[in-house]
Amino acid sequence: MRKNFRILIIPYLFLIPYLFTFIAFRFGPSIAGFFVSLTSWNIVGTPKFIGFSNYIELFNDPSFITSLINTLYFMVLTVPALIVLGLLIALLVDQNLKGRTITRTFVFMPYVIMSTVVGVIWMWIFDTHFGILNYYLSFFGIKPIAWLSSVNWAMPAVAITTIWWTVGFNMILFLAGLQDIPEELKEAARIDGASNWQIFWNVTFPLLRSTTVVVLMLTLINSFEVFDQVYVMTGGGPSMATLTVIQYMYFQAFQYFRLGYGSAVAYVVFAFLIVLVLIERQLLKKVGES
Amino acid sequence: MKRKNKYLSKTILYLLLVILTILAFAPILWMTVSAFKPEGEIASYPPTWIPQHPTLSNFSYVLGTFNFLRWTLNSFLSAIVATIIVILIDSMAAFSFARFHFKGNALLYATVLSMLMVPIQVTIIPLYLMFAHVHLLNTIISLILPTTGNVTGVFILRNFFRSVPQDLIDAARIDGAGYFRIWWTIMLPLARPSISAVAIITFISNWTNFLWPLVSVNSDASRTLPVGIAEFFGGQSGVSGSAPQYGPAMAAALMATIPAIVIFLLLQRYFVKGITMTGIKG
């Protein structure tokens, strides 16, 4: 009897510490955020239940719409580049070339630098008057570009920074996918007289499809949540040209202290991500079937 | 003809390899070079890749003007403590999920995994309210605790523990070992590669974490390195547009970067492992 009881309780004893932190710091706050979003809550005052008013206000809020459009623009600038470059670089460093591991190391290295440092480094590179980028561009007859202080160039500058910073991460994921492909398959195709190009399109790429879906999703999600680089490099400016959704959440909650409204922004982000994940599931299923 | 073609394409590939390496490394090198330039030289035109009068004045300025060492210590301390807690509690939970049949196992594990879909940003405002309520904002504790509710550690370790042969556990049971001893003396040592990967992921994500430390701490005594750099060297701090200020900024950036790069070069294998385990199979 006693022994039975011990066996019954042991699995739960192992779980308790983790379940405590998980519920207190991850699961609980995730749920609580929704309830906060249904209130009008200014740090000092008491929360007042206002239903879905925050959400209604949000979609009539031009600044929020701007931040959404900016975030989508950022995604357009970064996601395709990160996927295509990540794959191409992985293919390159997967070739039997001397020094490929050195290139791998250097391409991945930026990823271990903290986001705010990355931002500061590139602020210096992008500096209008003393920046090294404008200096090299002048060789091609290009006049100094006010990268971070012009409405047109600020977002592309942040995008370039982000691509440099994270392309190595995608390279590693694609590389892992490439190395899972049995060498015999490519060898067999080669013996049958297939060219490198044909091998890539007919053997490698189809087998890389599920990797590609996963990398695409991770990249989409990360770009959608962009905050750090923008906070450091432009602060959302000039004139809201680089204001992103998460940054808008931050502003509303911690500069204007509208915690309910900020939570509503966070939950809209959540809703977008759910849609993305559902699309991913469908794509992966399709890939699995074919 | 064909051989010549092959030779040419090989050359192009090597050329690409070199260009890629240069593009990836140039910004890091430029940061390093700029950090050693004196005030007059940093804005010199044309820019130089080798400092003409190398100096350490930028470093001493940063260390003398800001609580840089304090930020570093805070970052390091919170990351290391969080990592230790995560490894202990995640491996216990993972052991339980992987090796016991009990009521609610599948449901609980599904709940844990479901949080992979919820962006961490959703938790920031409730966490802020919670820590404000118990008066723990502006403390190192507030930097550590939220990390310990992470999901990936449990995910990676559960997958590993499921692959351990049952015979090992049975043999230990026959020798009279309790389950806590089995966890500590059999499971943990076996899982060393996976634990290293979890440790690196946890440490790095804590070391580089920005949004939550930005929100939860606003006293210099508990500030972390990423936040300190953003607040005192970022675009809102007055650095931009004045070249001499970039010297200290690059010195600070370099000091913040060196530990991460050294750790990365030493433990590269585990980095890659950690990424592929959470990325591909997640």
- CATH architectural name of chain A: Orthogonal Bundle
Q: Main β-sheet of chain A, in a few words?
A: 2 strands, antiparallel
Main sheet of chain B?
Answer: none
Output the structural class of chain A. Answer: mainly alpha
Helical/strand content category of chain B: mainly alpha
Number of strands of chain A: 2
Written overview of the protein:
The complex is a heterodimer of chains A (290) and B (282). With 290 residues, chain A is mostly helical. Chain A has 13 helices and 2 strands, in the order H-E-E-H-H-H-H-H-H-H-H-H-H-H-H. Chain A has one domain (62-289): MetI-like (MetI-like fold, Orthogonal Bundle), CATH 1.10.3720. Chain A has a two-stranded antiparallel ribbon. In chain A, a hairpin with a 7-residue loop joins strand 1 (39-40) and strand 2. The N and C termini of chain A lie far apart (54 Å). By secondary structure, chain B is an all-alpha fold. In chain B, helix 3 (57-65) packs across helix 14 (246-266), helix 4 (68-99) packs parallel to helix 8 and helix 4 runs antiparallel to helix 11. Chain B is globular and about 75 Å long. The mean pLDDT of chain B is 89. Chains A and B meet through helix 1, helix 3, helix 4, helix 5 and helix 7 of A and helix 1, helix 4, helix 5, helix 6 and helix 11 of B.
Structural features:
heterodimer, A: mainly alpha, MetI-like fold, two-stranded antiparallel ribbon, B: 282 residues, mainly alpha, 15 helices, 72% helix
